[in-house]
Amino acid sequence: MSYLHWFEAHANKHHAIIVKLLMQKMSKEAIIDYFTFEKMRLNEPDFCPLYGDCQKCHTMEKLNCYLCACPHFRFNDEGIACREGITYKSTCAIDSRKGRYAVFENVAHLDCSLCTVPHTEAFIAKHFDLEWKHLMRACLEHALKA
Ligand code: SF4
Question: Which residue has the CA at smallest separation from atom 4 of ligand 1?
Fold first, then answer.
């Protein structure tokens, strides 16, 4: 599945859950709480393929899935930057110190596995938007650049 296909599919899944929670008149705080890993795994098993194996994408006690993926992630299949002969297809907009690059055949991809920035409740509350696509607007704009 391409990034853009995943993006649309994930946006639709996220939106459907939000519509359901709004019909239950949930507050912002309750919605964020609903997206904790343990609750999502039980209530929304199709949201993430890792739920089936009870596997977290990041090693953190309180993992929140509201912001999968990260609004700071930038991707473009044609490459975002080229340095010393290496094409960077993905980067971090804030250059998080926890982001690393995996390089294979002169192509670099950002590895966010050590970064917990978007999975904390404080970050989600600060940047909260009911529409996941709004939060991810900059990511999509980068991905669509020719
Ligand atoms: S390194 Fe962290 S902040 Fe940067 S894109 Fe990855 S998850 Fe987001």
Answer: 92
> What is the number of the ligand 1 atom nearest to the C-alpha of 74?
5
- Among protein residues, the one with the nearest Cα to ligand 1's atom 5 is 73
- Tens of pLDDT along the chain (146 residues) come to 788 899 999 999 999 999 999 999 999 999 999 999 999 999 999 999 999 999 999 999 999 999 998 999 999 989 999 999 999 999 999 999 999 999 999 999 999 999 999 999 999 999 999 999 999 999 999 888 86
Question: Total domain count for the chain?
Answer: 1
Whole-number Å distance between alpha carbons of 133 and 58: 22
Determine the structural domain holding residue 17 and report its residue range. 3-144
Q: What are the helix (H) ranges across the chain? A: 3-23, 28-34, 37-43, 121-126, 132-135, 137-144
Ligand 1 center from residue 39 Cα (angstroms): 24
